[in-house]
Amino acid sequence: MPLDIDSLPDDVEELKRIIILEKNKIIEYQEELRIQKLKEFEHLDQIERLKIQLFGRRTEKWSQIEKDQGFLFNELESSLKRRFSGTRRREPFYSC
Asked: What would be an example GO MF term here (predicted)?
């Protein structure tokens, strides 16, 4: 019910009732706003957790095969260093 001066009743009891109803509406809206803000904070928190889960730091877990392959690359590198440093006799790069 829209309130303006001309539409207000002259009865004091009726005016009190209107005031109480309006106060109750305000309280309901404030509670609804509080609940919406809580939901917003929960959603923002969830977004942050998902961002961390998606883009955050994590340890990479390598299988034993992948670890062994790293060893092979190190072995190849040290072999090439020995070959070009003159500590080993020269061999053809590709041996059959």
From this structure: DNA binding
Say which amino acid occupies 50: L
- Mean pLDDT over the full length of the chain: 80
CA pair distance 59, 53, nearest whole angstrom? 12
For the chain, the domains span 11-55
Segment 41-70, tens digit of pLDDT: 999 999 998 988 888 766 666 677 766 666
pLDDT at 2 over 80: no
- Read off the amino acid at residue 81: K
Rounded to an integer, what distance in angstroms lies between the CA atom of residue 30 and that of residue 38?
12
- Nearby residues of 17 by Cβ (< 8 Å), 6 or more positions away: none
Take residue 67 and report the two structure tokens written for it. 């670890």
Q: How far apart are CA 71 and CA 74, in angstroms?
A: 5
